[in-house]
Here is the input.
Amino acid sequence: MDAFTDPFVEEITVMAASQVGKTEAMFNMLGFIIDQDPGPALVVLPRESDAKSVSCNRVLPMIQSSFALRQHLPKFSDDITRLEYHLDRMILYFAGSNSPADLASRPIRYLFLDEIDKYPKFSGREADPIKLATERQKTFWNRKTIKVSTPTTRDGYIFREYEKSDRSRFYVPCPHCGKYQVLVFGQIKWPKSEKSAERVKNERLAWYECCHCNKHIKDYHKNKILLQGKWVPEDAELDDDGSISGSIIRSKHRGFWINSLYSPWLRWSDIASEFMKSKDYIELLMNFVNSWLAEVWEEKIEETTIDKIRVLSCEYDQGIVPDDAIVLTAGVDVQKDHFYYCVRGWGYYEESWLVRADRVEYWEDIVDALFKTEYKRLSNNETLPVYMSCIDSGYRTDEVYRFCRDWSDRTKAIKGQEELANGRFYRASKIDINSRTGSVIRSGLVLWNLNVSQYKDKINRLVTTRDPHKWHIFKNPTDEYLSQFTSEHKVLVRNRNTGRAREVWQKKKTAVANHYLDAEVYAVAAADIIRALNIRKDESARVHQRIVSQDTSRGSWIRKREGNWL
Here is the structure.
């Protein structure tokens, strides 16, 4: 409601659980404009019958029961109908989203869209209902649009609109340590031995565990901490004292997310009990995720967790090459002002070891890590260089191309794709053009298009292989590496019209970044390009080990090899 009265804000999106006051807040905004800032307004509900019900049973009684608002009612009762109010200074319309004619027939300044995930989907004959309605606001410089709903899936309207906003979440302080946090269901605890949902609810056995100090936050603490809460945009940071810092960019599109844990009418035990009743039934669990947790429903196929990856740690330090590693490859994820990179060693039958994972700021640091550092083996003083690397060209493309030209024998510019024709893992294409003739320069730079989905599938297969383990990491990996490496999961995404599903790797809702995962993908791709994934225990592998271990000067295209290596 504060955002609604901010002249700078044009759009407000609220993705929230059911029965937490989001629709009531929207009606409060409606009452404000009737009394304080009138203008033609449209309220859109999923169906016309919903619009009539809300008009008669919620909005009109609100106006009649308020002294400030009922002064604006018309003198003649005929000016109030079920779908149209002709007030003294403005007109208020109601419409169902299933009626394109009602949405596109009148100019409006204020647009209120309720439960938008229940609106009909785009059919190919008419634009989607939200687009039709917002087109009516073009002539108003001071327009405002409010969208509220519980979420459904990633393809739902409310999630897509929330993703476009500043994505604010509500932080509350722990009553014990004072540190701020977002309330999430994973921190609700109850006795592990208790299997009865009714006992958990009736005897109030659940509590909320602070993610900082692990102390119990009881039900009676909730009202106090809610009053001290703060809305924090995604790009900002909240300090321990409650002050907001970081790169705060004022947005015309404010977005708010809140779940049932914040409801003053629900106890922790109510929420825990509802989960216990729902967890074994897919339709009930979907409702719990959408309507209680305010999260999108995803049919997960593959998922890695931090605990699953942490157990892959081995007894060697970062920067050390295990003895079984034959060749090193690297992947670099390029960001606006920094880089994330991973160096990985490869042995027989796709077995690999993470040698180094770090964030650096300058190109000189990448040169040092990839081309000037000789990584020592675990048991002796032998060293191994990075044989091949792949560098993402999505950001700072010209700089990446220039870098790859300078180090053309040891790195490749890559571009990630969701899929490639014929299920290929990669496709190479020359991109340097002769400016005079327009033809491709045969010796020019090559861009490698990678099927990142298939490489993530390969990584997931290597990670989950247990007998024997294929994927290893050095001991004591950082929390940042673990969280970023596990930042995505594989889900089924269904076409809204046909219902057909396809498998897609997507960021988890709670994930912050996935840069280390991308760097690992590129390191695997580099190994695939040089055929390091095909090393077997035979003569060619032993010769390959001698080749990689020796001085890697690139004097000529084909160098002399020992024995009949071909």
Summary: The radius of gyration is 29 Å. Residues 48-65 form the longest helix (18 residues). Residues 318-477+514-549 form a domain with the Nucleotidyltransferase; domain 5 fold (CATH 3.30.420).
